[in-house]
Amino acid sequence: NRFTAVDVRCMVIRLQKCVGMRLANVYDLNPKTYLLKLAQQDEKILLLLESGTRFHTTNFQRDKSMIPSGFSMKLRKHLRTRRLESVKQLGMDRIVDFTFGSGEGMYHLILELYALGNIILTDKNYKILTLLRTHKHDETSKFCVGEQYPMAMVRDHQKPTVEWLQKVVSEGFEKVEKSSIKNVLNADSDFGAQMIEHCLLKVGIRPSSKKTDAQVQQIIEGGKLAQDLSAELTIAEKWLDYSNTDLIKGYIILGTFENKKKEVKGSKGSKDLKDEKNEKNE
Questions:
Q1: Three-state secondary structure readout of 212-276
Q2: Alpha-carbon distance 94 to 8, whole Å?
Q3: pLDDT tens digits, residue range 133-184?
Q4: CB–CB of 112/122 below 8 Å?
Q5: What does the DSSP 8-state code read for residue 83?
Q6: Which secondary structure element, helix H or strand E, spans residue 139, and what is its range?
């Protein structure tokens, strides 16, 4: 599944263990998916990058292309043997910046996980050297070789105040009038769709609510419902801050469940009933 902003935040923390390792090689699995082999003494880690979707370490052995693509060759040329100096999320967006090397030999490998995605290699000043996909961000920002990566477009996290809610909801519905409150909030925050849905339900708002719904109008007006939602999002924000400093353990719970479906005495399966019907017809 496609990573959310929360997934990106947590995975960046998880990958701090890779900082200090050197890039041994780059392999392409398909036109959108690449495998980075990181090594340090006797330790080796395989890092999978899928443009627009995900990034994580893996132990699964995947088939690699017999002949490396031109993009893989360019990554090998600039990054192979260089040390991974940092892994960070850019602002609140689903963008990850892998910094290799230092000083004049510093490079940034940028993974974009929104829209159609992209993998972009830049020099130390974020001048684009090569990329998977050339496109326009807007009239002034182009994603192509030789252009500057538009760091100005990176959005910082905003506190979920009542004023912020009013602004985001009103402007969001102006852009896409038929959208839902859940999608409007998700488009302009880093809480993730699941967390936003949870907070909306906690205060009694349907995630699918439209602009014309009374609850949405109360948020735009900054009423009590907006205050309640702001409080819930603030609690969620504290959880995100916690996930930004520690590795969070997950638990798999195994349980047994009895089949409570009662059997009707003398009942027959569908196959038996069909057979009985055929016998009567004969």
A1: CCHHHHHHHHCCHHHHHHHHHHHHHHHHHHHHCCCCCCCCCCCCCCCCCCCCCCCCCCHHHHHHH
A2: 6
A3: 998 777 777 889 999 998 888 888 889 999 999 999 999 999 998 999 999 9
A4: no
A5: B
A6: none
DSSP readout, 113-176?
A: -STT-EEEEEETT-BEEEES--EESSSS-EESTTSBP-GGGPPPP----HHHHHHHHHHHHHH-
DSSP string, 35-74: EEEEEETTEEEEEEEETTTEEEEE----PPPSS--HHHHH
Q: Who's near 180: CB < 8 A, 6+ residues apart? A: 207, 208, 209, 210
Model pLDDT for residues 179-222, shown as the tens digit of each residue = 999 999 998 888 888 899 999 999 999 999 999 999 999 999 99
Q: Terminal CA-to-CA distance of the chain, rounded, Å?
A: 54
Does 1 score more than 60 pLDDT? Answer: yes
Q: In the chain, how long is the greatest CA-to-CA distance?
A: 89
In this structure, which amino acid lies at residue 134? T
Measured between alpha carbons, how far is 81 from 96 in angstroms, rounded to an integer? 21
| Cα–Cα distance measured from residue 57 to residue 3, given in angstroms and rounded to the nearest whole number | 14
Look up residue 47 and give its amino acid: L
Q: In this structure, what token pair is assigned to residue 153? A: 């477009």
Question: What is the rounded CA–CA span in Å between residue 19 and residue 169?
Answer: 39
What's the whole-model pTM score?
A: 0.78
Mean pLDDT of the chain: 87
